[in-house]
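Appendix B. Chain record.
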Amino acid sequence: MATSYVTPALAETRDYLKTQTGLDNFSLGIVNNETDASYHHGWSQRDTDGSDYSWDESSRDWSWKTNAARALDIGNFSRLRELSLWLVGQCEANRRDPRVNVDCADIREIIYSPDGKTVKRWDRLGIRTSGEPSHREHTHVSWFADAEHRSKVGPFKRFFGTGKAPNMMFLQIKGHQEVYGSDLVNTRAMPEGTWGWCQQLINSGVPFFKDLPDMATLLKVGGPLAPEITSGGLVQHSHTVESQSVFVAGSQTGAAVAP
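Structure tokens predicted for this chain:
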């Protein structure tokens, strides 16, 4: 059985993350030669009983039979939670609109922990929602096999280049409990149970205007109220982070904001 190998594109991404995170090659794992189904494996190492999701569920995988590893694990460092949440948001925005964050289009899944306790999975195909407990301490990112030769470092350079989720803010009317999120194009009410996620992004530098005088001012600052998506979109998701990630980099306008 052939051993999976590291592609130049994944090596480039690993080398870049080493400079930004201080992690070593062991903590930025690419190849895993164990026998469990995984995007760390190439075609020759797949499970052949029909249970290998990393090859069986997408034509973007099974049509490109390569022994290249297709995943990268990012070990624990000071900004792992922030990076994971941001990357999920970038990918969800791209899934909703392929014109946005095009450098995320090849990412199949992200398995991560938003808080070091729970494990969540963003899955481009919408099939899986959870992951193994080991992902409390590291984040797994995988790419479709047909992206073997395409660069994968772009989203990480955007994250470390800005230090926070771009073009995003939270808003609140003075004396009201409801919090709204805006990508500087549209505004949506944040569903219940998402404040912890909002607070993490606010702590990382995302603006929070919490003393706006009325709804008219809020919409003037954040943009018109967008219609609720009730099918095939965000509201139906059970994951807090996925359901809110529309607000992360939904726009790349770079427009200035002032209340």
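Further analysis of this model is presented in Appendix C.
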